[in-house]
Amino acid sequence: MIALDDIDRAFLRALSEDATLGAGELGRRFGLSQPAAWRRVKRLEEAGVIAGRRLVLDRQALGFGVTVFLGIKLATKGRISFEDFERAVQAIPEVQVVQHVLGRFDYRLRVGARDIADFERVLRRRIMTLPGVGQIEANVMLSEERRPGPLG
To answer: Distance between CA atoms of 138 and 72, rounded to whole angstroms?
Structure first.
């Protein structure tokens, strides 16, 4: 584990808000030279604190107006392996996130669809036919807000 100082935390907060910030801008914001800022970012990347930078797409603007979270309980854990289920579910393009979880369900999925009719098609033709699927619970997302991460 790497020791983080206040400037490292400030860099991480700034990059979590805008991953396109370069070392020059980070340096200007926090009173460092561009090379010093670059070295800090490089150190955070090499330590695995910054695991990558991500492009965030506006699903609404792309025509995907419905997001549904599914809880999936596998019917027969002995007959189907988790790996078989995971391999099959990852081949479904509408499934954006697959999480193996503890609790009432074995998996939580985030599914994007154009509308409710499109989601129903994905559910019936793709998800309900996955190997080992037993119980499914769906929650339609009404709104979403981004909250600051653990660094505040």
So the answer is: 9
pLDDT 10s digits, 65-75: 999 999 999 98
Q: Which of 54, 108, 111, 119 is nearest to 86 (CA)?
A: 108
- Provide, for the chain, the percentages of residues in helix, strand and coil under a 3-state DSSP scheme, each rounded to the nearest 5: 35, 20, 45
**What is the spatial distance between Cα 16 and Cα 3, in angstroms, rounded to a whole number?**
19
Per residue in 67-110, pLDDT (tens digit) is: 999 999 998 766 667 888 999 999 999 999 999 999 999 999 99
What amino acid is encoded at 48 in this protein? G
- pTM equals 0.73
